Amino acid sequence: EKAKWPKETIELWERLSKKEANDVETIEKSIVHHVTTTLARAAYNMDNFSAYQAVALSTRDRLISRWNETQGQLSKVDPKRVYYLSLEFLLGRSMDNALLNMGLKDKYGEGIKRLGFNMEDVIESEVDAALGNGGLGRLAACYMDSLATLDYPAWGYGLRYNYGIFQQRIVDGYQTEYPDYWLNFDNPWELPRLDISIQIAFGGHVQTTQDEYGVTRHTWIPGSSVQAIATENCNNIRLWRSKPTKAFDLTSFNEGNYEKSVEDATNAEKITSVLYPNDNTMAGKELRLKQQYFWTAASLHDIVRRFKKSMREWSDFPDQVAIQLNDTHPTLAIVELQRLLVDEELLSWDDAWEIVTKTFAFTNHTVLPEAMEKWSVPMFEYLLPRHLQIIFDINLFFLQKVEKKFPNDRGLLNRMSIIEEAQPQQIRMAHLAVVGSHKVNGVAALHSNLIKTTIFKDFVDYYGEDKFVNKTNGITPRRWLHQANPQLSALITEALGNDKWLKNLSLLKGLNAKAEDAAFRKKWMTIKRANKVRLAQLIKDRCDIDVSPDALFDIQVKRIHEYKRQFMNILAVIHRYRTIKSMTAAQKASVQPRVVIFGGKAAPGYYIAKLVIKLINSVAAVVNQDPAVGDLLKVVFVPDYNVSVAEIIVPASDISQHISTAGTEASGTSNMKFVLNGGLIIGTLDGANIEILEEIGEDNIFIFGCMAHEVEDLRHAQRYRGVPMDPALQGVISAIERGTFEDPKIFQPLISTLTVGKDFYLISADFASYITANQQVDAAYKNQEEWSKKSIRCTANMGKFSSDRSVKEYADEIWNIKPYPVEDEGHL
Ligand code: AZC
């Protein structure tokens, strides 16, 4: 079209689409422009929130200009792209990050100040995009940051929930849940793409016919459909939302069935209404299965549409497209692509299956049995009849090959089958994901080895070792150091002479030498203290508890789960409390004061996890007002832990706790965030703790507890040989049962999880070494000079845990994609 335009028209477009300048005055003009036109507000009746909206819109303008340029250049090259399918993107706030990435935070800060506002208040007005539960969702957000920073051609696909993870409030010590209606105000970080709308079908039946060559063809005749509408975020993430299908409404209307059509319309919108609030557990709800199909079908349709524009052969598909499955949630994409290729594009089954298996790769994030996704066959058949047939065919051909390789082993076929023979039959999504992918990865070295010897052992025997690889998780240093800890970031840049470390985190090694520099250590610890003051203020505001920033800040923030053992932490706090209470004044004088801080949400239906929150709050209520303890011990539960709160908490730790039973935490990523910010950790030999230990050295980490290979024997011994409970733990339990913290009846179900033979997470077995490790922490903290050296060495040796490293490994070893650098005059 453009080619037909006269020269003057083209020139006019080019002249007028020049990017805005980056001087303070132009920035101010664009802010005021958005206030007076987009927001239609007068300068005089503005609050912080409108200021935020205007700054966000102005920032977005700049992001979009750059983004358009990138996409324009990319579409000419048309390189192989990766698509990251994740049901969760836990993004948090966007504005601070966007301004820092463009190198414009200072100029915007100056502009907004001259306009009568304070940048920090404006930033605080943004609500979190909390479309995720925990580690898995935040990992997706960090990976999108790294993919963009490293110029990889990549798209994330997810769902645009109306309600993100619930808001947590504490009422009488108990968690209560409130809806997170985060779209109450317009979201300036998304662009609706009303032009991208896809019909998604459900239900109905399958028609089988013979084509003119006598080949059997299957046609899915759906019973209903909904529309998927795309919204794009400035970070290359495409989120789908559901809307009623117009055509479908009309049929109902025409049949005179107004009520039914209204009902169908609301049902359609329900699909993307709410994020399921379970972390590491599977609920098995029909609506969740609908979400999964809706999202994978829309995403695949979009991917295939983009591929078809290039007019290539289908066999080229895996050379143009890599799809990464973030856990088993998007596994239906495997089935949907096979269906499109066989039923709609009329490829042979084998040709199609070769394309499918070369395209997909699968990341496993957990070995916990309660998290393994299974769908009941009858429910699945009702929603997706043709997909069920395809799954049974995939399984049949797969098991035939297994039988050929390992003949006469019924047990093996039963174990490996995609279909579990239960009442009713169940589809094992993890098996389907392994069979349909060319690579399967775990998220830390220990975890990747564990999956090879446990849940996927038979598959390793069948496929060989090469299909199963490790990709240790990482975090983005742009958000988790540069943005969350600006003072430390500035000090590091000053010490290293430049900020190249932000894109090459191994350069932090240069800080090792600085550990010997007393003046540097002093600056380092001054910043830590300032961060603790900032957290103390948040604790005052949210919990009305006064804590001293001179005490040791001991933090455990993560989802509440039995395997993460917050229960063990609070039991040890009770032990500490009882110890202090038994001391003379002289003995107390040498106690290291400690503030023990908890945060995290429990799944609304997870009764035991919710009782742990109640116990923490009951202990806090007693300890915090006990004059015999004073400042020696404070206990805090920070409500509504989320990404923005984490940005305050992470830089403020002296020690943080990563104390899962060995072999249960696949990786953990907050461990990386804390250590990167110069916080030491106490932890078990689990997940990424092991690799952190390898990088920073045993002098800079507190390790305790049993090892993964010992867990089975310990459980067995406890169950069948009646190993008695640890005596210190016994004392703590007795104190609870005596009513030291509220009515002991409340906590009985919790205590029952520990009674001999039942302590599945081995709290008793690890308790003594846990107490010892905590004493070592106290002793080490007494020597502040040595502590500050440890702190600096922690940060200095964390280069490996940048998500840039993780993403590059995926790109080189799984996706086979290359970066395409685009002209960019930005700062980072
Ligand atoms: C989590 C793991 O529990 C955590 O250890 C890991 O760091 C994180 O994924 C990112 O890899 N797993 C989940 O959240 N898993 C599910 C199924 O929810």
From TrEMBL:
UniProt-recorded Gene Ontology molecular function terms: glycogen phosphorylase activity; pyridoxal phosphate binding
Matching InterPro entries: Glycg_phsphrylas, Glyco_trans_35, Pyridoxal_P_attach_site
One biological process term in Gene Ontology: glycogen catabolic process
CC terms in the record's Gene Ontology section: cytoplasm
CDD domains in UniProt: GT35_Glycogen_Phosphorylase
Modified residues (N6-(pyridoxal phosphate)lysine): K673
Pfam families tied to this protein: Phosphorylase
Cofactor annotation: pyridoxal 5'-phosphate
EC number: 2.4.1.1
Broad class of enzyme this protein falls into: transferase
Keywords for this protein: Allosteric enzyme, Carbohydrate metabolism, Glycosyltransferase, Pyridoxal phosphate, Transferase
Coiled-coil residue windows: none
Primary role: Allosteric enzyme that catalyzes the rate-limiting step in glycogen catabolism, the phosphorolytic cleavage of glycogen to produce glucose-1-phosphate, and plays a central role in maintaining cellular and organismal glucose homeostasis.
PANTHER family hit by this protein: GLYCOGEN PHOSPHORYLASE, GLYCOGEN PHOSPHORYLASE, LIVER FORM
Protein name stated in the entry: Alpha-1,4 glucan phosphorylase
Source organism: Mortierella polycephala
Gene behind this protein: GPH1
